[in-house]
Amino acid sequence: MGAPADRRYITTHEWHKLDGDVCTIGISRFAADELTDVTYVSLPAVGAEVVANQPFGEIESVKATSDLNSGVSGVVTEINGRLENSPELVNDDPFGEGWMIKLKVSDPAALDALLTAEAYEAQLGG
Amino acid sequence: MLKTALHSTHERLGARLIDFGGWEMPVMYRGIRDEHVHTRTASSIFDVSHMGRIEFRGPAAEGLLDHVCTRNIAKLKVARSGYSHVCNEDGGVLDDVIVSRFEDHLLMVCNASNREKILAHLHKHAKGRDVVIEDKTTSTVMFAIQGPATLPLFRENLDKLPIDVDAMGRYGFVTGSYMGTGYSVFRSGYTGEDGLELILPTMAGVLVWNYLTKDGGEKRVTVRPAGLGARDTLRLEAGMPLYGHELHKGIDPISARCGWCVDLEKDFIGAAALRQINADGPRRKLVGLVLEGRRIARQGAGVLVGDQMVGEVTSGTLSPTLEKSIAMAYVDADRSDADEKLSVDLRGSRVGATIVPLPFYKRVQ
Question: Domain ends where: B251, B282, B313?
Fold first, then answer.
């Protein structure tokens, strides 16, 4: 299963799905598989400001702790509360139920600068 | 990288392979947590062929091992295995090993990452002694089969594989030959579960692995492959040290909670230093920690009382069995009591931690 074409990506593996001016962010299956069993996801509070390319949270697995980054700036409108008790959702369904935050983006056009699914997969192939 | 005889089997099983001590080994097949839980509830098989297997023969074999090992090898009986450290002159740990006494030779199993170092150390101290040292690592395979379903499985199949696990006792072993292939089966392990470890000639490896992992069907438990990732989380729950984390040349066996495998009345490399440490009391101690929350403490994380650094984490994980964040750490001896209020520095934020007795997990006997 490849990276869905209905969203944009950054090289640190976060996907960004825009709906109007709200962007949902999660990590790709590639990243989830690399991490292996996710044990903890640290997310910002609703209302927090997120700045593009600066960490907004952390994701932990048995293997490693990694920063979570957004390719766009905005304000957090919603976070996925299910991840607190079920972090394994990130491994089971990283493009769907494993979503992490929703941002009201200051500039929706900023997503155009992010990688398409094709470009993201191409740079993975490396 | 070196490969074990099971390498293409691991690839066929979809294992994720990593470099471990110079060997390409499976870190996981289905998932670390899945493999960990299957080991605690059923039975898992681990390819541990990368570990060093060194044989000693000759009249001076026992003397050499008693010279380099902390354990009293003279007292080790035939068909028994014993855990030991190998130290340098300062009492620093060079490796932790298992020594087994066969009828006509002694066997040392050591960590893969230390094999070259230990061989050099042994050869150096064997000079002038009537002993032959043979490295059998690449001509044999070694599997660990661990979990509560393991021994029942072997008991059920006593007619096909005449291995009397009950006669062996824990840390005993048997040798035999089956259809022309010699085997050694040890009742030992590194997971906190009961189980067996097998040493076989390389050419029998794939056949035996496939036989042991065949589908048990509805009525029988299937032995499933597990990798080094689960091996690490299992041993950590069982409070067992790992070389490179709890053990290294900057630490001595007594501080590492392994004084029980040191015979201070014996002369061996490091004995004088260890007698002194024993007399003075160690300055830091290995403790178990349970952290608040679910965040994992990694090796190197600072352990504090208030703002004062009193120790350092050596290993940490989220325990699948306890559903808690657990860690082992060296803590200043005067701060290592169970009622100390500690915190661990996780990437800049402080998380509360409590000292708990090791092991974190003990199997039901």
Answer: B282
